[in-house]
Fold this sequence. Notes:
With about 200 residues, this protein is mostly beta strands. The protein is built from 3 helices and 12 strands; from the N terminus they run βββββββαααβββββ. The chain is globular, with a radius of gyration of 20 Å.
Amino acid sequence: TINTPNNAEYILNTVRVAQRGKVGVAQRGYPHTLGDTSEAPVPVAQRGYPYPHSSIEIDTITGEILSWKYANHIITTHPISPNFWRPPTDNDLGNGMHEWAKIWQDATENLTSTLVFKPARTDSSYSFQVAYAFPDSIARLVIDYELFVSGELRIDYHFTPLVDSLPNIPRLGLFLNLPKTFTDVSWYGPGPHETY
């Protein structure tokens, strides 16, 4: 339940819900869809790929990363997911980007992934490939992941538009959720002033 002061209205872009405790036969931590009334949980099929100082667990169907650890520190417990959208600036709103580029916002929110090549091990790394299906097959995206013994995760991103009339892409990148224990960052991009 969300209580809103003075009948305020909130727009939620993405909502993810996981149980805190056992309810019926559903165990703690299982993801649920809002409105899901099924009692039986569907466990995620996962497989771990460890090295002495680093490890990665992936979903064996979707290929999404479920956990990435280095030196007993959690790097992420969320999928590293493609992103084609960014919040519009005032200038963007003036040119209607939130309307003409909405196809990319929808793509970001509605991609489905499939593990194409299962993890293969070499002397120095595990590598696997994930393909993403877009709504209306507007583009193709294949991402190659390679986890090295050092703990480095290399990501090769192969994006190909399949429709000639697509609008400009507001952003071509990835989401990476880090835990709150990460408090310091180094910025290697342009700056320190505004750049376009």
